[in-house]
Amino acid sequence: MNCWDGERIAPDPVRVNGGDDTFSYKKNSYYQRLAADAVKEKIVDAITRNLNVCELSSASNIIRLADLGCAVGSNTINAMQDVLEVIKNKCLSQCPSSKLPEFQVFFNDKTSNDFNTLFTSLPRQREYYSAGVPGSFHHRLFPQSSIHFAHCSYALHWLSKVPEELLDENSPAWNKGRIHYTNAAEEVVNAYASQFAKDMENFLNARAEEIVSGGMMVIIMPGIPYGMPYSHLTNGVMYDLMATIFMELANEQLITEAELDSFNLPIYSTSSEEMVKLVDKNGHFSIKTVELTNPTSWLEGPIDIKAWTMHVRAAMEAMFTKHFRIEIIDEMFNRLIRRLFEFSDKVESGYKEKTQLFVVLMRK
């Protein structure tokens, strides 16, 4: 229950695979870590240039960090440790005569997240006090003006819900036969964009209440150059193939067309221009950086299709299981691997260079 607005928030089925088994996010999330590492130096530079740590810690000598959409595994722990080290070093250089502040790190994700696996991954010796905070980051999570640095990596592209128009047979945005806005009608694309805009407004309003004046928020998420169709992206190729496979399963009567038509991936990639417009409209944050970066700068040679598919399954499987039987999901992913190999030329030619959005915001 979210008590900040007095309304009950329905549990969201979107979560990564917990545990430690073959398809767990813990074992299949190093692509996300490598992508986030591509902007690691940019985060260091942003904190060094913009965060006044002496002023932030002057009131209580405590600096509080939050990772929003932390999932499970080492990614969130390493990211927070990296940020903490940068802030600590700036404290030592900016205010050497002051006592080093204490640090508190909050790990946030949906209530269905596997926090037990996350907590067992925490190092025994650490320089911070830690706590898990269950709940949707599209709503309030923390007390007023309590957070000094917020971090959100590969989480904000998940919409809070599928746009309702996609499921309405009488709507021009009815997404029949598809599972995403890739290659879909303009009305479908607009429905996704509209839902993302609503989610961002809620997200920014919530963070504006929680982050202190002068505090910082860093966002890393999938992005896309302005005006580029999603079908040009490598992920677009995968989502289209998924839809084709589900249609085959419907034709084979393993699922119904109604099951397919009622399923859509709540995933949206925004452009720099779109993000700037949404932040400016909200008005609570000043923009320090909004830029598209290359998440695959570490990649040498062709994409490892099996590993890529495993990462996608670890992140999305729970959503599929809310809609399809597990044997259908197994079959879909088995066919997807074969199909991606068949279309490997299309996969490799998909645009990947400027597909990670890096954002640095300061609370006014």
Description:
The structure is a single chain. The protein is α/β, with parallel strands linked by helices. Helices cover 41% and strands 16% of the residues. The protein is built from twelve helices and seven strands. The chain has helices at residues 30-37, 40-50, 53-57, 74-94, 115-121, 186-210, 234-251, 257-261, 272-282, 305-321, 326-342, 344-349; strands spanning 62-68, 102-109, 129-134, 147-153, 211-222, 285-293, 356-363. It has a seven-stranded mixed sheet with strand order 3-2-1-4-5-7-6, with helices on both faces. Strand 1, helix 4 (74-94) and strand 2 form a beta-alpha-beta unit. Helix 2 runs parallel beside helix 4 and helix 7 (234-251) packs across helix 11. The longest helix has 25 residues, at 186-210. The radius of gyration is 21 Å and the shape is globular.
Task: Extract low-pLDDT stretches.
Answer: 1-11
Report the end-to-end length measured between terminal Cα atoms. 29 Å
Instruction: Note the run of SSEs as H and E.
Output: HHHEHEHEEHEHHHEHHHE
Mean pLDDT: 92
Helix content: 40-55%
Shape call: globular
Count all strands and give the number.
7
Rg over CA atoms, rounded to whole Å, is: 21 Å
Number of helical runs?
A: 12
How much of the sequence lies in strands comes to 15-25%
Which keywords apply here?
disordered N terminus, 7 strands, single chain, globular, seven-stranded mixed β-sheet, about 15% strand, 12 helices, about 375 residues, alpha/beta
Summarize the structure in short:
This protein is 41% helix and 16% strand.
Please write out the topology.
Layout: H1 30-37, H2 40-50, H3 53-57, E1 62-68, H4 74-94, E2 102-109, H5 115-121, E3 129-134, E4 147-153, H6 186-210, E5 211-222, H7 234-251, H8 257-261, H9 272-282, E6 285-293, H10 305-321, H11 326-342, H12 344-349, E7 356-363
Helix pairs in contact: 2-4, 7-11, 10-11
